[in-house]
Amino acid sequence: MIDLKKGSRFNLKKADENLPSADGHKGITEFCVGCNWGKIRSKGFLGLFPSTEEVDLDLSCILFDKDRKMVDYIYSPQYLPEFLIKYGYPRGKLFTENGALRHSGDDRAGDEINNDCDNEIIQVDLRKINPNVQQIFFFLNYAEDSGDFAKIPYASIRLFEGTPSVVKKVHASFNVASDPSFRGRKSMVMGKLFKDSDGSWCFWALGDPLNAENVCETMNQIKRSFV
Ligand SMILES: [Ca+2]
Ligand SMILES: [Ca+2]
Asked: What is the pTM of this model?
C-alpha cells in the first residue's frame, strides 16, 4: 500500500510491476480522482429548527503539452460561457479527447447522510491519453462566492486505483474540511500527473490551497505557479 502525503510522488508504471493487468500492460493504467463531501448542517435556534445547506464543490482537471500550453480540460458545463470568456476559457465539458479522462457529472448539493462514496469522480485511462500531453493537474473549487472548505462537515479528495464502483487501493488523499491549511480557502490543487523522462506516468501529491476566487482564477494560478 502506497500512502502518499503532500509532496510525495510515485511512478504508476512501477507501482504494481508484478501484477500485469488483463491486457498485459504492467503498472497502473486505470485510476480515479474522487471527491466526497457533505451538506452543511445547522441546528437552528435552541436546536429546534435544524436545517441543511447545499454545498457545491467542483472537481476539474487541466492538461498541458511539452510547451506548457493548455491542450485539454474538464470542468463543469454549468459554468456560464460569458463568465468563462472573460478569462479566455472555452465552454465546460466532462470528457477529454478519446475519453481518456471522464467526469462523473456535477454534484451541486453534497451528501444528505454521511457516506464514503465520492460525489464527483474523474476516471483516467492512461492508455488513451494523447501522446502530446505531458502534465495533468487535478483541482477542486468551492462554487459559492462565500465558500470556505472549513465550513463543510467533511470533504476529502483522493486518488485511487479502480473504478467509481470498485475502489481497489487509495494512493493519496487530502482532507480539505479539517486540515487547518485549507481554512478560509475555496480552491486547491490536488496533484499533478506527469510523464517522466522514460515516458512513464508519475503522480505528485501536491495538496496545496490556492488564493483563487473561482475556477478560472484557479487555472490561471496553476498555469503561473505549477506548470
Ligand atoms: Ca459540483
Ligand atoms: Ca458522498
From this structure: 0.92
